[in-house]
Structure formats: structure tokens, C-alpha cells
Amino acid sequence: MVAPKSQENEISRDRLAELLNEDLCREYQAIIAYVVRYDLDNENETIRNYRDRIPQCEALGEYAMAEQIREILVQEQDHQIDLATALGEEVPDVGSGPKGRALRKRR
Ligand SMILES: [Fe+2]
Fold this sequence. Notes:
The chain is mainly α. The protein contains four helices and no strands. It has helices spanning 5-8, 13-59, 63-86, 98-106.
């Protein structure tokens, strides 16, 4: 049943405050999702880059540095999993960056 226009606009101050809080809550959720999305994109890029750095280090005989980067990579993958989980998404399979793929093809 549709209420007459005058009744539709009747609202208590408490109800208005409640509705405004709900509006604000939605805004915050959108901002948080946006920030988390941005962070996840950055983690994906970081992981792609570190995956490329490992063979680059090894190609230069920098095996200890490659091991250090592997440890950092494990941490970055944990961050990636946390962020994807927060967004309710599957963890993206980022593979390695285009430079890495190009380097391997040239060999
Ligand atoms: Fe990270």
C-alpha cells in the first residue's frame, strides 16, 4: 500500500540519523573495497616483478640474493592471499611479468 505523500515524508530525527549512518556505512565500505583493490593490484605487480628478479639474480650468480627474494616473495604472497580473501575473491594467478617471459624466450 502506498502512503500518501505527506505521510511518506514524515520521519523522526532518530530515524533520519539511522538512515544517514547507513548511507555513511555504505560509503566507507566502498572506499575500503577500493583501497583493498588498489593494494591487491600492487601486490600482484610486486609478485610478478619478484618472480622475474629471481632468475635475473641467478643469471648473474647472485644466488644468496635470489634466496632472499624468495623469502620476500613468500611474504608478498601472504599479503596477496589476505587481500584477495578480504575482497572475497580467488587468489589471482599472476604468473611472471612480461620482461621475465621475454628473457626466457631469448635463451
Ligand atoms: Fe606486500
